[in-house]
Amino acid sequence: MKTLFLFIGALAMSVPAFAQIELTGSYAPILYEDYIERGPGSDLGDYTGMPLTDEGRAKALLYTSNLPSTIERQCLAQAPWVLQYRPLGMRIWSEVDNDGKVIAWKIEGDYLRDTLTIWMDGRPEPSPNALSTAAGFSTGKWDGDTLTVHTTHVKTTWIRRGNGIPASDQTSYWVHLTRHDDLLTVVTIQEDPFYLSEPHVVSRVFKFEPRANQGGRTICNTANEIPRLEDSGIVPHYLPGQNPEADFMTRTYNLPKEAALGYAESLYPEYRHKLKSIYTPPASCGRYCCGWIERQGLPGAAPGLSCNDGGLGALNPVVRSKSEEEKAAPAKK
Fold first, then answer.
1. Which of 18, 103, 135, 325 is within CB 3.0–4.6 Å of 121 for a Cys-Cys bond?
2. For residue 12, which phi and psi values (nearest 5 degrees)?
3. Distance CA 158, CA 168 (A)
4. Predicted confidence band at 214 (pLDDT cuts at 50, 70, 90)?
């Protein structure tokens, strides 16, 4: 009987409390998933997949790509969960109390994103008037094997990299982190009463990688990247109605306005029926024509496509289509 009790006690100690999963480690992004958003960044005027309000759309269209190059904006921290839109990995660790109980999970920041602290000790959310920070305030709880996080008290920033979609300081997030063996799925559900007409949902996958080079918290150094603006007080922007890229997705990919400029209607499956009757595919593709498989030089790419990765070939040199390589190969005797 004594042996049985010892066995049961040892078994109980080996089971994590509340079915929590160990998240500690370094994770690398899997960039064949939405690689344009996570790699080079979305084009100006590309608000596809976004449920923007009229105010959010108007503010996004004021954005010009040299705005972040001004000295006062070069080191502005981005949103707490901007990791969903970046080509970088992340490192997670836990902080414990004297009894070994996890009181917080940490997701390491870098020169453009502050370290996230996810409090697990049940502390209350601060007052709505409390200080907002680049990391925001996050609490977490385990729902089975999923860590569910609520983040508030953030700063005004941009949502996506590269095209100015705004997020206010009233943005809040529900986030779900689920680990399946070596894969970590991160789902963010972002709500913003000013710039989003409904929740914006993003799902990304990271892979546990002990040798991942995370880069750490490097220092952001400012420099005068636009000499003509030095000491001028000028803030680069487009006046309303004058953004030359407002119709970029329409003229390049034939997308209708409501799909290109972030109208919530275009997010739903039913929109495909409407799109089917009005959409004409472009005659040719001038950039970002490569599937991930072809960019890596692997078999299985779309037949007959000449690969144009928009200048990313320097990162992943490939890349001609199979048909081109067959033409270039010497004839067999």
1. 103
2. -65, -40
3. 8
4. low
